[in-house]
Amino acid sequence: MRFSRSLAFFFYVAQALVGASVLVSGAIPPARAQSAPQAPAATTEPLQITTASGAHSFAVEVMRTDEERARGLMFRRFMPADRGMLFDFKTEQPVLMWMKNTYIPLDMIFIARNGTVTHVAANTEPMSERTISSGPPAYAVLEVNAGVAAKIGLKPGDQVKHPLFGR
After folding, report:
1. Within its chain, how far is the Cα of 56 from the centroid?
2. Which residue in 45, 99, 103, 113 has its CB near the most CB atoms, within 10 A?
């Protein structure tokens, strides 16, 4: 879901459309683009965020490949309250995210290699192409439903526990 997301997403949609023999002259019909196929439901892993208000548990899908990170939560219309999506960038780096083709308003939680929250982008705008910066380099990004960060009192310095951190 880095800025290169649009290119990877184009190839994802193009592969689906070519398989359906719908791709014509390199153009994706607008109606087809809006109903792009969703990936099969992924398995979830437990994740815990510890804030001043206590420990908060989530079940997260982990996006580990470029293709998975590019697709992210695109085209999904709902995410349960106790769910999230964790993007593994495999190294600390500046990260740019966006909400293109993402219908669900989200809180983006940028996390350092050691599991420390470094930045929170709350209530991101659905369907927006505006880039959202990690600020300091991030190792991972956790997306949860908009409002969750405020509800649990999340702030930079809080801790995220998942096998991805502390390896």
Report:
1. 19
2. 99
- Summarised one tens digit per residue, pLDDT across range 65-80 is 999 999 999 999 999 9
Give me the amino acid identity at 13.
V
d(CA 64, CA 87): 7
Assign domain 5-161 one CATH number from 3.30.830.10, 3.40.50.300, 2.60.40.420, 2.60.120.1140: 2.60.120.1140
**What are the structure tokens assigned to 95, written together?**
């990260």
Question: What is the 3-state secondary structure of 96-162?
Answer: EECCCCCCCCEEEEEECCCCEEEEEEEEECCCCCCCEECCCCEEEEEEEECCHHHHHCCCCCCEEEC
Banded pLDDT at 40 (limits 50, 70, 90): low
